[in-house]
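Replying to the earlier thread about multi-chain prediction with a worked example.

Input:
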Amino acid sequence: MFSCWLSRLCRGLSTPTGRVTHLIQGSLSRRLMLSSQRRIPELSSFVARTNTCGELRSSHLGQEVTLCGWIQYRRQNIFLVLRDFHGLVQVVIPQDESAASVKKILCEAPMESVVQVSGTVISRPPGQENPKMPTGEIEIKVKSAQLLNTCKKLPFEIKDFVKKTEALRLQYRYLDLRSFQMQYNLRLRSRMVMKMREYLCNLHGFVDIETPTLFKRTPGGAKEFVIPSREPGKFYCLPQSPQQFKQLLMVGGLDRYFQVARCYRDEGSRPDRQPEFTQIDIEMSFVDQIGIRSLIEGLLQYSWPSDKDPVVVPFPSMTFAEALASYGTDKPDTRFGMKIVDISDVFRNTKVGFLQDALSKPQGTVKAICISEGTEVLPVFPKANRNWNSPVAKSIMEEQRSELIRLMEIQEDGVVLLTAGEHRKACSVLGKLRLECADLLEARGLVLRDPALFSFLWVVDFPLFLPKEENPGELESAHHPFTAPHPSDIHLLHTEPKQVRSQHYDLVLNGNEIGGGSIRIHDAELQRYILATLLKEDVKLLSHLLQALDFGAPPHGGIALGLDRLICLVTGAPSIRDVIAFPKSFRGHDLMSNAPDSLPPEELKPYHIQVSWPADSEAERAH
Amino acid sequence: MFSCWLSRLCRGLSTPTGRVTHLIQGSLSRRLMLSSQRRIPELSSFVARTNTCGELRSSHLGQEVTLCGWIQYRRQNIFLVLRDFHGLVQVVIPQDESAASVKKILCEAPMESVVQVSGTVISRPPGQENPKMPTGEIEIKVKSAQLLNTCKKLPFEIKDFVKKTEALRLQYRYLDLRSFQMQYNLRLRSRMVMKMREYLCNLHGFVDIETPTLFKRTPGGAKEFVIPSREPGKFYCLPQSPQQFKQLLMVGGLDRYFQVARCYRDEGSRPDRQPEFTQIDIEMSFVDQIGIRSLIEGLLQYSWPSDKDPVVVPFPSMTFAEALASYGTDKPDTRFGMKIVDISDVFRNTKVGFLQDALSKPQGTVKAICISEGTEVLPVFPKANRNWNSPVAKSIMEEQRSELIRLMEIQEDGVVLLTAGEHRKACSVLGKLRLECADLLEARGLVLRDPALFSFLWVVDFPLFLPKEENPGELESAHHPFTAPHPSDIHLLHTEPKQVRSQHYDLVLNGNEIGGGSIRIHDAELQRYILATLLKEDVKLLSHLLQALDFGAPPHGGIALGLDRLICLVTGAPSIRDVIAFPKSFRGHDLMSNAPDSLPPEELKPYHIQVSWPADSEAERAH
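Result:
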């Protein structure tokens, strides 16, 4: 269908995608700024300590404090470093006879034991300050100490530099949570969600509404966990999203709904997916695409952590067709260039067989990307060189060469990757190669994607339907069956449904889809036509929703942001498992508690189910 | 075991329970007040309207506005009342020829259709103002109108005065949600939870952490829904609370955790319970009972709706033993008196046979309550009268009568209900009668329980263990096996475990348990002893928690507030179903969507389960 190869050309620089840099001006912006100036929370209210370990500074000198924490390490029975969630502080172990019991406690307790100490904040002796430690100017002169709990020998040390396998980290998750990184990730997540709530509830009047998770299966809802009920043969299902409920809330006149919603998807074993995950789920009445997009831009700007570069709005947007043509994907990473260029015209009269072949077919194209400095990293054909004498380049005529250099801005040390084939597939292949080349270049030390840069992008104008994979003659929803068609394309619904664009929009961050939503169908007839006639779904399963649309449903739309992925990108964590307190392994296991687990048969009885043991595991059990 | 009867005596007044009325003084209080002065949210940002229907006043006169809403009613094709979530507004239908199309739209749309109108805010003509309507001084002179959706004939009218059965309301929940009461309940719930979050996160540094709902069964965890996994015979369970996870978070050094947590309990059909419910779940390290209680008092005070009387702190507290003795329950309604009085001493030398009998047994007592104005409501023995000549009172000697009048403050028209029997059972019976009598008196128009009064109470010092119902020789946890014993009673654990009090505390509001928690066991040895030796539980299921306690677990404690019940009490709703957007019926059905539902057998295959059809339903299916 298509082929691709490498050609060694000249060197060039990738053009970074234009970044819109103006901030919202005027009163809204100022108001957002003001309300983000929050009070510092009281971290020691209601508890046995007076202060946290991490907060003590020279300004506390002379204060009598009580601290609670874990023994991080001990030096020659003279110093002890105490740790809590807030930081580390140095404690001086008293050496005089009268404090023998205190000394005994502090010198004998194993590392990671929990102690409470009371004493005075004093300056460290001149020259002994530790500028690398936020509390490095002071230390605690201890008067009394209490051992709150001892610690047995640990499976690994609670030190960030100690490497451990992820399986071990997950098995002892409660120990892994003590690490700086996990504390940072979970606390940032909590703060960011709190600010999102402030923005939605307090600034824009959204109502936080909880929707059920014991629901029924949805059409096409494979991947839904099932829960047997006490009625024989009747099952609840765990929903993949609160989609139906949020639309019903709009019919119910709630006007502005949001929820930090737990969702469920049983995809079996997939890397970096979780069987339960969280989305910021939003729905509004009387809104259009631009309304939802502005809301979300404001939401992210308002909730963005203050230790990161501020978010710049509005976000750029791109149609699905453009994203595919330029980046070969519906979630372009726009932090760097290397865009796909259509070079079909250059080769209209080519003599090269497979190019001729590709171009003669419907949708046939020749596409290419230019990897600047690609010669550094790509295993270019040994005979290829800057004189265009690679196996294929030899057949490219001088005129075509100049045209390529002009079109693709090829410079010395650039490598061109060229593909011929059907438009969509050609783009898709080059899109993947583009990302792989970026990885290769970065592994060699080039910075293509600034780690401090957060590049948001709206992708819009998706197709409403796709051909079914298993049966391309039939249609399936590109996203879900409640998505409204694009107003300009409604006339095509009865004639050329495959050509209809939708009012779906995706939010992309650094090449990751972090959210998606749409304007919904609020017309019952249109919804019935799409479900029954075009999609051939069982309408009975959705009769409540169709009926609701008959009873005065307002126009409405919404979006859902994938919270786990978003926090993962913000914190720079290597996996979503690092921003979830108790994640499952990629096989869906809780390695700490050993869930899922066997159940005694009598616990299945009330639910009228029994296990169907596969033949081989039956045999295994017999052993 | 015991008996009770009525005796007609003299009239008296119930003494209301003392109510502590001082507010927290000083800086904390002022700070709480300040931060509760919130900005009014923008309710029309990002959408097609300029204003909500309910917000328009004389101050908007002359403004050009666009409104979106539902047609509430129409008068003689001249006026139309438009409704949105915020209120009602009167729209004047234009009568001149040039606006014929606008008139047509507004006059022909059925009730509850959705329209958008644009026009000018004008004063109502003098004399036509409606002082009962917040927008009653103005009306909208319409220039343009758009029909956004028509409404078919409704199953019931969207008017609060139209009564409908609860089954119908649940079937058309999206219509019921348009009622004033449901909008009020859900919006109050959202606001109150938001303020709780502000208090916990922003004022006190709590971390909002999501814990898994795909977990494994817990010891004694019948009532847990099961979810088959793709591994044959392996099941997840939906947890009844995040108890284990929150304790593990403390071991993980998170220090202050909270979550608005979805919990699951499969209790079959029970009135006013839901298979999924929500709790405000809290855990802290280095805290004691008083710390948790102060935190919760502050939380409720801070989040309390401003349209209710403010919450007064600290809440009174009472031991479990006192609650039982005075109110016959562990959740006393302290809004009124009628306390239980022990009158055993009055009858030490009685000749009445069944009283003698009761008092001769261990724990034998005679107890009574006095119902003031009880003669109004109680079906007193026809022969009983104020001369003490009821069947039993006749046998009571003059001395005993005077002593009873003194002890119980009996006044004219009072009725005494007397019980003889074992302490706990006698109290329990009188406790129930006390509440039933209060209902009877209130049905007759007496106000015993001020509907504006919120009477909070801590109940403390519960027993740690109870005898198992099915086998009283064995022990079970009164609450759960992680509850710490009372420090004064630890020495009894090895000798008289039944006598050990716990560090559990319940929060009671107007006779309803709205929360409970405890200081937890943080010592692994003690936890193992209680689980394995005293409770004889399968320790393997909890090995991860026991191991965690070995690795430096801090002392910790927490609480969970039942959010649905709390909001139900605050709003005065008749059922928790009225504060949940999409509740299940008492049989656990979603009457709107028809969950739980049948599943095609192929959807059970990946989970290696099959339905065990009971014999009779097998027969039914064959038909």
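Residues 1-38 of chain A have pLDDT under 50 and may be disordered.

Feel free to reuse this layout for your own posts.
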